[in-house]
Amino acid sequence: MSALSAALPRLPKSKSTGSTSQPRARGARRKAASTTVSNPVEHLQDAYVDPTSGMHIGTVTIGGQQLRVGIRPGAANMKPLLVFNGIGANMELAGPFMREMPGIETIIFDVPGAGKSPEPKAPYRISSMASLAADLLDHLGYGQVDVMGVSWGGGLAQQFTIQYPQRVRRVILAATSMGGHTMVPGHPRVLMKMANPRRYIDKGYMMRIAPDIYGGELRSNPEAIKLFTQHARGGTKRGYQYQMLAMLGWSSLPWLWRIKHATLVMAGNDDPLVPLINARLHAFLLPHARLHVLEDGHLFLLTQAKQTADVISDFLREVNPQTWR
User: Which of 107, 174, 183, 271 lies 20 to 30 Å from 281 when distance is taken between CA atoms?
Assistant: First the structure.
């Protein structure tokens, strides 16, 4: 991690953040047991049900930071699935996917400064965000979970898993990479457009650039672009910058081999932001992983919600995935 990244402060009043190189045991404070609270939705303030996704959406406050949280209830006999979203993304973008996951309880939150979660008071490290997510699970009463990360959230999913290995059962990494200088990047022109949060604020601008930066269905299907713009809700410019800064100098490569969990790596074959080679490297380096490639771009979770949900649901229900490799 770079000196600048290491110097970044933690989220205000957050609990212990852990370390990327020496993750500490959490003892009784972290609930690694399989039990969960009878109704986590009861912990949400000002909750309502989104009729499109079926999510119960409300707010909680963790260590002085308000978070907007979505929970789609599921069966008690399945591990809950914690979803980490992409940079600048609001939870509604995952709504179509969550709707297609019946029987599996799914939890998602808007990262501070994204969607409708207020921005944090200061920049943060990715380890601090992993700690905040663990505190959220504690607050809601969840024990062990399955973890899924999309794009930027894939980095957070890897960090969460290495910090809290006993808290995680299985991992899904979608359209993501090992981060930083270890990522095989997309074209610089594409990355420059991605770095501008304007796409979440100006829908006309988004419709113009979406095919170039997301690829896949958005290249030729106007309905796919419309679907994305209908669900996207931007946060704040500072919140977006903090998300980018959190990943500065971060990489999972030095400790990726220590993630022994069964892992499903998913990628589109036409992803201008995170080229397919990144997923192939992930699947090769992770001890217990397999790769699933979709005929799509970066946003297959949205444009192929049903197909993606079916693959993930099968993975989470599989009896002995450790035998893959």
Answer: 107
Confidence tier at 2 by pLDDT (50, 70, 90):
very low
* Cα–chain center distance at 53: 17
Which distant-in-sequence residues (6+ apart) come within 8 Å of 145 by Cβ?
79, 80, 81, 82, 107, 137, 167, 168, 169
Residues 6+ apart with CB under 8 A from 61: 67
Longest dimension (CA), the chain: 52
Residue in 4, 266, 281, 307 with CA at minimum distance from that of residue 157: 266
One-letter identity of residue 136 = L
* Side chain identity at residue 269, one-letter code: N
Closest CA to 114 of 151, 95, 87: 87
Whether 151 sits among the annotated catalytic residues: the reply is yes
Query: pLDDT digit string (tens) for 66-123?
Result: 999 999 999 989 999 999 999 888 899 899 999 999 899 999 999 999 989 999 999 9
* Spatial CA neighbour of 155 closest among 256, 67, 239, 232: 256
